[in-house]
Amino acid sequence: MDKKINVNHIQQRIQQAAEKLKRPADSITLVAVSKTKPIDDIAAAYKMGIRHFGENRTQEFAEKVNKLSHLDNLQWHFIGQLQTRQSHLVAEYAHYFHAIDRIKIAKRLSKQLQKYQRELSIFIQINVSGEESKSGFDGSDWEHNFSQRETLENAILQISTLDNIHVCGLMTMAPWGAPKDTVHNIFQRLQKLSVWINDRHPTLQARELSMGMSDDFEIAIEEGATCVRVGSAIFGKREIEQIKR
Ligand SMILES: *Cc1c(COP(=O)(O)O)cnc(C)c1O
């Protein structure tokens, strides 16, 4: 078995993208999305210096966390949609959750986190593109639609008051196979929303932006991503396609 785990090349591309913008490369966190991939692949990437891993299925996630508990400083990112009755697994094991899409699940996580005496950093998922198949709070017209913007603002503020939860920023996904300028536009609009909300609420401190995947992480970095979630470009194609967009 000699599978190629493509860490160095991706790190180089992130560094080059950062240099172009005169941003320090360490202002961008690479989350290696290991969903569907075996434990050995994660261990191999860890050896190459990766510490942040992303999973999107609760059972698979919990199993991997337990099997790899001997590795120091692993940071687990749960990046998928979370079903209510599975939320305790994220509360127990995740360091970051990228896909908060309703207030109810945030409240539930907060209670469970208190029970486990843990803290969780979260990204609030915003559906900027307005695609129906995408989850997240509706931000498809936040610039012009006052009530949509107000709903978003209230949700973000309410979630940020919950115990044991730290809202670190916003997350979005670009439409599958969209032209480059559309992708730029989607990421730029999330970045502007982040500036708008943080300027209005300076104590919020939720300036991180989780955006960019294998096909578009360089565009995301150009638009201000602080966290990119890269799967297949590191670990190779997944046999089972399971991106829920
Ligand atoms: C699978 C997935 C990724 C990684 O996708 P790639 O195209 O393989 O890089 C990123 N974010 C989310 C939310 C995902 O589900």
Keywords:
245 residues; alpha/beta; 9-stranded parallel β-sheet; 9 strands; globular; binds pyridoxal-5'-phosphate
Major beta sheet summary: 9 strands, parallel
Number of helices: 9
Helix content: 40-55%
What is the N-to-C order of secondary-structure elements (H for helix, E for strand)? HEHEHEHEHEEHEHEHEH
| Molecular shape | globular
Q: How many extended strands?
A: 9
Uncertain runs: none
Small molecules in complex: pyridoxal-5'-phosphate
User: pLDDT average, as an integer?
Assistant: 95
Structural class: alpha/beta
Integer-rounded radius of gyration: 17 Å
Strand proportion, as a percent range, falls in: 15-25%
Distance between the termini: 32 Å
Describe the structure.
With 245 residues, the protein is an alpha/beta fold. The protein contains nine helices and nine strands. The chain has helices spanning 7-20, 39-47, 58-67, 87-93, 103-116, 146-160, 180-200, 217-222, 232-235, and strands at residues 29-33, 52-55, 75-78, 96-100, 120-127, 137-138, 165-171, 208-210, 227-230. Strands 1, 2, 3, 4, 5, 6, 7, 8 and 9 form a nine-stranded parallel β-sheet that branches. Helix 3 runs parallel beside helix 4 and helix 4 (87-93) packs across helix 5 (103-116). It is globular, with a radius of gyration of 17 Å. The structure holds pyridoxal-5'-phosphate. Pyridoxal-5'-phosphate (PLP) binds at residues 33, 35, 56, 79-80, 213-215, 229-233, 243.
